[in-house]
Write a structure and sequence with these properties.
Strand order of the largest sheet: 3-4-5-9-8
Largest sheet: 5 strands, mixed
Shape: elongated
Order of helices and strands: EEHEHHEEEEEEEE
Number of strands: 11
Strand content: 25-35%
Radius of gyration: 25 Å
Number of helices: 3
Structural class: mainly beta
Helix content: 10-25%
Length: 185
């Protein structure tokens, strides 16, 4: 007999219950896909290897240095540099603007728990990341424009679902890299 979410044991006459065993009920269990990729390595690995050049549709109204010092939003960068954005993409895309910053576009969000490093010849470059509000587009702005053989590494450090206390295993930690060659600007 069920009443208000509780279970009652009912018997007629002289009865003895020697044990009770209760299991969880999968009342709200369902499967769903959170990403088209199985993991970060597959996501980053969807990059074709080709960095495309992206040019402004109009003359930029400010310099990269001015934009960085003003701590501007992604939308302000798009307006200032009049950048064309892809409307459809099914893999990780990387484009190089003529001023030296990279535009990373992703079919699935790369949240704020995903960090990036840009290295050239094995040496990490100082970069600033500017994300759009969907996490699907990120500007990677090196202090000095990178050229030649480069590696862009993505690092994820995401709390796992229902981690009661933080420990060495409570976060999902992974990294994946792509390599490409950037022309001299």
């Amino acid at each position: 007999m069920r009443r208000a979410g509780r279970v009652a044991l009912v018997a007629e006459g002289a009865s003895v219950f020697s044990s009770v065993h209760v299991d969880g009920l999968d009342a709200y269990r369902f499967e769903f896909t959170t990403s088209r990729f199985d993991d970060l390595a597959e996501h980053v690995g969807s990059f074709s290897g080709a960095v495309h050049e992206v040019t402004s549709l109009a003359q930029p109204t400010q310099s990269v240095a001015a934009m960085l010092s003003a701590n501007t939003t992604f939308a302000q960068w798009m307006t200032t540099f009049a950048l064309p954005l892809r409307t459809v993409f099914d893999r990780l895309e990387i484009s190089l603007h003529t001023t030296g910053f990279l535009l990373v576009e992703s079919p699935d969000p790369l949240g704020t728990d995903v960090a990036m490093t840009l290295s050239r010849g094995g040496t990490d470059q100082s970069i600033t990341l500017v994300r759009d509000n969907t996490g699907r587009r990120i500007l990677v702005i090196p202090t000095t424009p990178a050229t030649g053989d480069c590696t862009l590494t993505f690092w994820i450090d995401r709390p796992r679902y229902r981690a009661a206390t933080a420990d060495g295993d409570s976060n999902l930690r992974a990294s994946a890299s792509v390599e490409f060659v950037l022309p001299a600007l």
